[in-house]
Amino acid sequence: MASLAERELRGDGQADASARLARLEAAFADEVRKSETLARVTEAVASSTDIESCVQVVIDGAREISGAAFGAFFYNQLEPDGESYALYRLSGAAPEAFANFPKVRKTPLFAPTFENTGVVRSDDITQDPRYGLNAPRRGMPEGHLPVRSYLALPVATRQGEVLGGLFFGHPLPGRFTARDEILLVGLGGQVAATIESIRLTAGAIAELDERRRAEERLKFALDAGRMGSWDLDVATKAYEASDLCKANYGRGPDEPFSFADLIATIHPEDRPGVLTAIEAAIREGADYDVEYRVIHPTGDLRWLHARGRAAQKADDGGVRRLAGVSLDITERKRAEERQKLLVNELNHRVKNSLATVQSIAAQTLRSISSPEFFREAFETRLIALSQTHDLLTRESWAGASLREVFDVELHALAGEDRIGFDYMADIRLTPKAAVALGMGIHELATNAAKYGALSTPTGHIAVRWRAEGGLLRLIWKETGGPPVAPPSRRGFGARLLERGLAAELSGGVELTYDELGLVCEMALPLRALEP
């Protein structure tokens, strides 16, 4: 029978295990919360149609992700004495907190943000050598929000135009992590793209409103710029159309075109709605405004927007004529459809990314024994995922080459000059294949840096691939490192390579623990890799 002391020791051990498990579960829950918040904010930003609400969603969401006490967006504006930056939106504090302070200038501390040269993240900004260099305050003015932890990132368009900057602070030091920086940089890029899109859309809407006003001013004109004019006698159904109006229906200037021809040209599914709108305008003496599809004699399908007004009422109050204009809006309709498809695609990618992050977190948690190791392993894997996403974003998610994926994943390794490549031709990858191979290459590179060829000064890695017989055959071979022995259990990296990567790309992956160094051989069907 166990002694009292043995039972007490066993109890203490169980308590320690329970505490470790509780910490791991808390860390996992925190990562899932951040991922879910990021997905929610990204989706909200993508669907924003108003700049103010878009920016507010971003700074509120960024505070929730990073734990910042307050956040702000300052926008760039030009003044006679040069550039300055005015507060646009604030989160975590009242607007009065900045009411009595002058506008922000491009000081040494703020310059990286407003010049789009980099992110500034500091555990204690008051210790930054760029802090407090400007007279007369030499630091934060009296009454300013207390800031020790500091994170600032530029918001700029893809063309390099600086729209402003996102700033986050906390009164305590050491509150922002590298992971927070990565997530918030992604949000900064998203809000910049959305602001640019909203501005373009606002310009297009303003242009459309101006065109509509012009249509009202020229509603009875025979020629209204790019709009075809038409006139219908209600009693006789005599129909007159300008050359441009005829062209909208696929007819030439010299071809006859009657009201019956017009109705016959309208798509059968849209014809009842058009006839109902015409009858309502005649019956009520009201405006006529309808969009519909027409089929040209060539079979070409086009979208038209027809507007008109009832005029010349008879003695009995009836309408004698309708007149107005028609406009081809096919390109606008196609653009609307493309925008809808893009939003749906973005939502799909966000959900896929969230599922990937959750899977990485779960698998990492399963294979790591302490919260400290979990955070390090999880963050490096998220960084690897984000690096591949950045590469694909630069290519508008059209794909990436295999060598580009290797380069972006190996860039951070100090020993990348000890990796040699041998291939006849590069391989173009789909986004799915690029992400899968990127994660696999990251696991190989991380293992090599910690335990393999890159952990010693003399180690070397040879990467060779060939496309033959419908397969990509790739070999990763390490030499010059510590002696290698088969592991006692399969870790996350091995499972990801041998099971996850192989299943994702319908191929085969084999790891050989040769005494001279690890060898990874892949045989992947090209149909699963190439666009």
Helices and strands, with pairings:
Blueprint: H1 4-46, H2 51-66, E1 70-79, E2 82-91, H3 111-114, E3 120-122, E4 149-156, E5 162-170, H4 178-217, E6 223-224, E7 227-233, E8 239-241, H5 243-248, H6 259-265, H7 271-284, E9 287-295, E10 301-313, E11 319-328, H8 330-367, H9 371-394, E12 400-401, H10 402-410, E13 419-423, E14 428-429, H11 431-450, E15 460-468, E16 471-479, H12 492-504, E17 508-514, E18 517-525
Parallel strand pairs: 13-15
Antiparallel strand pairs: 1-2, 1-5, 3-4, 4-5, 6-7, 7-8, 7-11, 9-10, 10-11, 12-14, 15-16, 16-18, 17-18
Helix pairs in contact: 1-2, 1-4, 1-8, 2-4, 8-9, 9-10, 9-11, 10-11, 11-12
| CATH homologous superfamily placement of the largest domain | Histidine kinase-like ATPase, C-terminal domain
The oligomeric status of these chains comes to single chain
Low-confidence stretches are: 219-225
Shape: extended
What class, by secondary structure content? alpha+beta
CATH top level of the largest domain is Alpha Beta
DSSP strand tally: 18
How much β-strand is present in the residues?
A: 15-25%
| Order of H and E elements | HHEEHEEEHEEEHHHEEEHHEHEEHEEHEE
Mean pLDDT: 78
The number of helical elements comes to: 12
Radius of gyration, whole Å = 32 Å
Euclidean distance between termini CA atoms = 68 Å
Major sheet characteristics = 6 strands, antiparallel
Shape-level CATH architecture of the largest domain? 2-Layer Sandwich
What is the fold-level CATH name, i.e. the topology of the largest domain?
A: Heat Shock Protein 90
Number of domains: 3
Overall helicity:
40-55%
